[in-house]
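Forum: Protein Structure Q&A
Topic: Joint prediction for protein chains with partners

I've read a bunch of threads here and the consensus seems to be that you should model interacting components together rather than docking separate models afterwards. I'd like to see that in practice. Below is the full input, 175 residues plus whatever partners are listed. Could one of the regulars post the assembled result?
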Amino acid sequence: MAQLCHNEAELRALGTSVLLISFGTPEGTKEWLDEVCPSFPALIDAKRAVYRDYELERSLWGSWNLKTLAYYLRAFAQGRKWRGIKGDSTQLAGDFIVNPNGSFLLEYRSEDPTDRPPVADILALLRKAAG
Amino acid sequence: MTNTESQRRAPDFVLPDVNGEDVSLRDLLRAGHRVLLVFLRHLG
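Posted by a regular:
Agreed with the consensus. Here's the joint model:
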């Protein structure tokens, strides 16, 4: 997320709006935003209806496996703050780019918490689409 | 990265932001923007 934040100016220059979607509380999400990425707007999907519409799955094994534990151990070793687990830790994430005509430029559903599309690839797709 | 560009249409939605103001995907698209949706996991 921090990497995405660092590229906010280029995303804007490419005509792209970024929306973060959380199923956390508004207060918890605001606190998280302030620490991690205050410049992007975050929307609240408490009932996860939009998560379901975008076919984002819940998976205990996908969320908590050796790869995930190794990721968190590395993150904490690098100084990441432990915020506790707030909400359903089995909910998997995803990233989507929607074109102005409503079609998808990218549909990416994470298979585990470490699985997100590289920001460089997202920017490359947007640059190509912008011509 | 698996890029699955498709002609499938993104489901529309209206959701409140952290201040309670409704935000509509369709309205952003109508303004000519591409929209990057980042669905978060829990906030831990």
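The two ends of chain B are 25 Å apart (CA to CA).
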